[in-house]
């Protein structure tokens, strides 16, 4: 694909003629990789989820968006609302780069309620004439009709002394009636940090300091920090860039994970355990959390990574969001489960029960391109169990489980086209307990694998041929007694128009 020039990347959506947009839309609509039940960009590139919140009976879900192609360029916020986090109504652009401060992108941020009204706090990205980055933090009010009004001035106009312009992604949280914002940063030594601000009136923000952790030298930048408490456990989530891979850990270009413990907010001291990755697949980054209507903590991530080219790029679009996951802490461990409302997508239930061994391939009559598959491991005397999805004569996506080592491997060597600039074609995680259950969500071009009821998740894009629809099971040696429950999943009609271009602002 031809290189995108800087001028092309920073072209405004509003300045592009309709014919060009319609051609792009048509190209995207023809893509064989379009997803059925995931949020994806109608054209161009989607990245971080932004402004997630449940407010006045509706969920608001926005994402970073460069509309004009599958590259990181001039970023907008594109917004959906939802009643159930499963069906989404596109609302169009909510924040667009139309001021000097955000001339080079409205970057990531979060949503919060102040005096009963909805607001966004976000980073405005500006480049000066020498292309130096200038990052400021802003607030915008979301009106009842969905239009968004930016405050005239930045609420935080520069990074604190000792930090660089890598200063972005404010996540607002409220504790004891006080508003706090946690912001991703880099100090002048080139180390990633999370900075804490406080406000009583959301206009004036006082810098409190950086959150002290024992991860002083852990990457050169921390993007998209998030903080919350579940059942007395404080969790600090962030995306460190520049952490070296270490065995089965930190294999992606950038990492996304959390530390858990106790945060003393007055002294900004976090006592915590190890940094854990949130996801062990190939494509997961920049997640954000929020509280749903039932008080549960929900996480949505970006199913993609920066600095990587994807096979759908040639069709004029890239990436999608992950399915929403419910977070909980059980036995001191963070669990992630798919939200229950996803059951609404189920149709055509099929079940099967049987022994998998060295010779079995098809324990069950299933095929599928977009489905949920639950595998209960009822007995396991196999050395290694193999589950394959999206198989054809030449393609297969393999999940292997080694009984002795408890290592679970996702192998996409034969999955089809692969993204570029990705280390290796396998991802492995060692489970805490014996494999008892896998729950797979397979969409047209992705897989989300939940292991042992929330113990581990592996999320990946798959660029497999349309005719690769087989599902297979076997073992290396020995047998395993398995129960399969499979559902086809139904999606909504893809949005095929460019009608929301003019809305808001
Ligand atoms: C993370 C990120 C954020 C930034 C946004 C820009 O993927 O780099 O730090 O706000 O994307 O699109």
Automatic annotation (TrEMBL):
Intracellular or extracellular location(s): Cytoplasm
Pathway where this protein functions: Glycan biosynthesis; sucrose metabolism
Keyword Hydrolase tagged: yes
Keyword Ion transport: no
Residue ranges occupied by any Glycosyl hydrolase family 32 C-terminal domain in the UniProt entry: 342-480
Organism domain of life: Bacteria
Pfam families for the chain: Glyco_hydro_32C, Glyco_hydro_32N
Residue stretches spanning the membrane: none
Protein name: Sucrose-6-phosphate hydrolase
Catalytic activity, as annotated: Hydrolysis of terminal non-reducing beta-D-fructofuranoside residues in beta-D-fructofuranosides
Known EC number: 3.2.1.26
Family listed: Belongs to the glycosyl hydrolase 32 family.
Role of this protein: Enables the bacterium to metabolize sucrose as a sole carbon source.
UniProt main location, coarse: cytoplasm
One GO MF term: beta-fructofuranosidase activity
PROSITE patterns in alphabetical order: GLYCOSYL_HYDROL_F32
Keywords assigned by UniProt, alphabetized: Carbohydrate metabolism, Cytoplasm, Glycosidase, Hydrolase
InterPro entries, sorted: ConA-like_dom_sf, GH32_Enzymes, Glyco_hydro_32, Glyco_hydro_32_AS, Glyco_hydro_32_C, Glyco_hydro_32_N, Glyco_hydro_beta-prop_sf, Suc6P_hydrolase
Domain Glycosyl hydrolase family 32 N-terminal: 38-338
